[in-house]
């Protein structure tokens, strides 16, 4: 075919149906440039493979973007995936998502557990439940994909516990989770290749120093996000040292590895929220310019490739932990303070103090709320009892009134029949209607029934 075309080109000249040569050249150059750019920005596919059957993976952020793609790939390879989600597993959308993930991967070992990373108590509840298990539960991997970012121009937001939300979700919750899960990680057998995969972002390079607090007026969503990612990296490296320092009872070395991963920029819901500033107008612009987002940003699946490499590359267990990977290759950290032990120590101590303070405050709040709830429940119970007694007494009263009426009627008839006065059989007690007033409780007012003993005039209470 190409030969026939070239021959006709030679003998018959340039065919009319083809566009002008220079136009053709332009179009070819444009298409090749787009194709090359797309190929380059898509990143490198993961070259590592591993059978994940039987491996237990905890993953945060597994419901969206890069985390969802990672959870899918791991589930497809047979891993038991536990999604740590903000919503409870009973939530209809989450249940559907889990069902869908099971169906698409053909893996029924996909579960969800509620862990709201914006809530230290929720993190503690999950992690303590996990480590309280005896014998220790199998744990092969923790993938920390959850993250949040306030859209540009947005205001500083605090969680209900009073911690800035970006710091809380992106750093402090992970610090807290790994802190509590540390015994569970260290208790794994020597031959279990445990990985802690920590996604970061190149924005950490522009972060302000960790030992300098961001003042409220200097706070921007970008600096908060960058600072949280820098803190996470510093902590991840320190956590590896913490694991390495552990002396196993069997005297064998620790094989758990912390792996830092920069997935690159991707078209995820989080990125879209950031690009559109969380506004409808922004979304409209995003849709119109979607071609550029497609061209320059990776798909979530391609962004997950470096995470999958960190999860499955077998050589990593033989290398020291705390390394940074990008495009499935090891890269150097661009900041020296990531490896600074003094910075790490200060961060660790400050985070511990912050968690202790917040947890104490929250515990007091919860205890107070519980007391108040118990009090209001007690009051509601008492009110219900009073209501019940009143309705019982009412029923008895009505019954007695009815009976009295009937007796009266009978007596009237008898009186008539005997030719005597109608008032000859009068009731000695006041009418029962006094019970129907606003304070009608016969218990409270010592109301004496007609058939109660009457010797000293004191009430003996209702006879029910
Ligand atoms: N996208 C990028 O371009 C890019 C670039 C560099 C690094 N990264 C990093 O890659 C990771 C994944 O990013 P992504 O863009 O895929 O994220 P994303 O689409 O924004 O998804 C964030 C995930 O975090 C979860 N999450 C947020 N707040 C939570 C909370 N309070 N409790 C529990 N879960 C919570 C979300 O759960 P819900 O579904 O319930 O909201 C969601 O599953 C992040 O660590 C991010 O920093 C991303």
Description:
- This protein is an alpha/beta fold and 464 residues long.
- The chain has three domains: 2-39, no CATH class; 47-207 and 218-339, Rossmann fold; 429-464, no CATH class.
- It is 50% helix and 8% strand.
- It is built from 13 helices and eight strands.
- It has helices spanning 2-12, 21-42, 65-76, 92-105, 120-131, 165-186, 221-244, 269-275, 280-288, 290-296, 300-303, 305-312, 341-418, and strands at 56-60, 80-85, 110-114, 141-144, 195-199, 257-262, 323-326, 329-331.
- It has an eight-stranded mixed beta sheet, with helices on both faces.
- Strand 5, helix 7 (221-244) and strand 6 (257-262) form a beta-alpha-beta unit.
- Mean pLDDT is 89; it is low at 420-427 and 432-464.
- The site of NADP nicotinamide-adenine-dinucleotide phosphate has 26 residues, from helix 3 and helix 8.
- Residues 400-464 are annotated as: Disordered.
- Residues 355-388 form a coiled coil.
- This is Ketoreductase domain-containing protein.
Characteristic terms for this protein:
extended; disordered C terminus; Rossmann fold; 50% helix; 3 domains; 8-stranded mixed β-sheet; 464 residues; alpha/beta; binds NADP nicotinamide-adenine-dinucleotide phosphate
């Amino acid at each position: 075919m190409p030969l026939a075309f070239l021959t006709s080109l030679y003998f018959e000249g340039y065919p009319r149906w083809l566009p002008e040569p220079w136009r053709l050249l332009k179009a070819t150059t444009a298409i090749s440039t787009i194709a090359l750019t797309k190929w380059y920005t898509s990143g490198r596919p993961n070259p590592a493979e591993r059978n994940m059957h039987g491996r237990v993976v905890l993953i945060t952020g597994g419901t969206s973007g890069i985390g969802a793609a990672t959870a899918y790939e791991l589930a497809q390879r047979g891993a038991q995936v536990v999604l740590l989600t903000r919503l409870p597993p009973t939530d209809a959308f989450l249940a559907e998502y889990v069902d869908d993930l099971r169906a698409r991967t053909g893996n029924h070992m996909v579960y969800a557990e509620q862990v709201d990373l914006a809530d230290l108590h929720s993190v503690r509840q999950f992690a303590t439940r996990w480590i309280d298990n005896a014998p220790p539960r199998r744990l092969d991997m923790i993938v920390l994909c959850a993250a949040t970012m306030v859209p540009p121009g947005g205001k500083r937001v605090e969680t209900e516990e009073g911690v800035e939300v970006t710091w809380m979700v992106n750093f402090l919750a992970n610090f807290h989770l790994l802190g509590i899960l540390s015994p569970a990680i260290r208790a794994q057998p020597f031959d279990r290749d445990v990985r802690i995969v920590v996604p970061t972002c190149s924005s950490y390079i522009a972060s302000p120093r960790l030992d300098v607090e961001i003042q409220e007026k200097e706070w921007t969503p970008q600096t908060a996000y960058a600072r949280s990612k820098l803190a996470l990296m510093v902590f991840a490296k320190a956590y590896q040292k913490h694991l390495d320092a552990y002396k196993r009872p069997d005297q064998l070395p620790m094989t758990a590895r912390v792996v830092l991963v920069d997935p690159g920029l991707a078209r995820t819901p989080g990125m879209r929220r950031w690009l559109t500033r969380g506004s409808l107008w922004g979304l409209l612009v995003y849709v119109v310019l979607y071609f550029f987002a497609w061209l320059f940003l990776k798909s979530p699946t391609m962004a997950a490739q470096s995470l999958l490499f960190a999860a499955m590359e077998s050589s990593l267990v033989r290398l020291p932990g705390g390394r940074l990977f990008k495009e499935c290759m090891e890269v150097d950290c661009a900041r020296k303070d990531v490896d600074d032990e003094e910075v790490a120590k200060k961060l660790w101590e400050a985070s511990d103090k912050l968690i202790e303070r917040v947890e104490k405050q929250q515990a007091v709040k919860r205890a107070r709320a519980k007391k108040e709830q118990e009090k209001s429940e007690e009051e509601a119970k008492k009110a219900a009892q009073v209501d019940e007694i009143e309705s019982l007494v009412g029923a008895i009263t009505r019954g007695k009134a009815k009976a009295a009426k009937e007796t009266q009627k009978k007596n009237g008839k008898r009186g008539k029949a005997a030719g005597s006065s109608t008032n000859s059989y009068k009731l000695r007690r006041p009418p029962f209607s006094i019970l129907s007033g606003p304070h009608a409780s016969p218990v409270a007012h010592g109301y004496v029934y007609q058939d109660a003993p009457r010797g000293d005039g004191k009430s003996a209470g209702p006879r029910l």
